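Quick one:
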Amino acid sequence: MLVEETYTATAMNIDPVELRFEATPRFGSPADWTIPIAFHDGKAYVELEVLEKPSDVLTLYNICFANSTGYGCVDYIRFTRPGVYEYNQIPSSFWDDDKPMDWTKGVTKVQIYLKNDREQKPPGTDVNFYPMKARLTITIVAPGFTYIPPPR
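Output:
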């Protein structure tokens, strides 16, 4: 399990410039995602439980894995109200724009962005998006293995 965290995103705990919340990967996350096990070619299973949301405005939830070389982002999870949202994707297929992720350097940060329907990051004072309370679980499964959902 890479991340298991319940948090409330507010203007006080998101980066004021990047407008993101950061989760720290759990202790024991591989330093290299390519050897001896190719985790980057496995699957990242995301379970997002939105516990509280201030409005029914469409929210794009963007999760990016990062290290010193770049980042890789999961496709958007879209929602308008509290509930459980599940998604999975192969890490090596994450979107990376102009700073591709070097998976041999592992994952040192998990960055979480809330965006509006125009893919813009709203400021922490936007009452349509903040505060938002969520439980996020990200489980990485190596190729050939089966995902077992974490207990709730």
